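Here is an idea for our session: we take a single protein and study its fold together. Which protein we use is up to you, so please pick one and set it down. Once you have written the record down, we can walk along the chain together:
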Amino acid sequence: MSRIRRLGPPAVGIAVIFLVWYAVCRMELFNAYVLPPPAKVFDSFRNMWSSGEIFRDVGISLARVLKGFAIAFVLAFILGMLRAVLPAAGPYFEYLVQFFRNVPPLSLIPLLILWCGIGETTKTVIIVLASFFPMYLNIVKGFTGCDRKLLEVGEMFDYSKKETFFKIILPYASADILVGMRIGLGYSWRAIIGAEMVAASTGLGHMILFAQQMSRTDKVIVGILVIGVVGCVTDRIFGLVIGMLLKGNYENGWN
């Protein structure tokens, strides 16, 4: 019963959307070219599933996301740790971080294409720029916001700076780090789709753009739905990992 209560409202919301979609198409309020009926979209999805096309594009986009996300996390963690351990080093790169945080990653695509072409480097850089900043800000928040009472306990036990960092600061910051990673993962998906629409010949973004050029609105909708589902699944998996690592001691509003 608890599972039904938990899954019931989302299922009702999804069902209402599909019913409205079906009703609009049934009443022919829009041309079928502009808004194809759910049955046609489902047939296109089934054909793409049978041919393996959808799995290939999902796999390519997922590999790109994971690669860029991993690079962004390493950079964010190193800079965040440097900011916490050596506060005097912050002014040397903090203004650059704040500058690029306000520059949309997609605006750099034309320049990156000139420098790197339309290969994997361009898409990786776009993902790194999109996911780095939410992770960096959360990591800095976790490292610099450690409870002063905990630090005083470390001083009582005569901890060195290294012991204080690994035994007090890092465990305290783990919740913020994991939440920042979860946010960064969502930004990675948003970035890769835009990058693939401009600078790729494979992946979900390219599939949507190619379908639009071929006037296949049904495949465009399939691509949008698949992106949403894959994004939700990866986010949910990450949320479960956070729950296991933190043993349910942190509430972030997404559960």
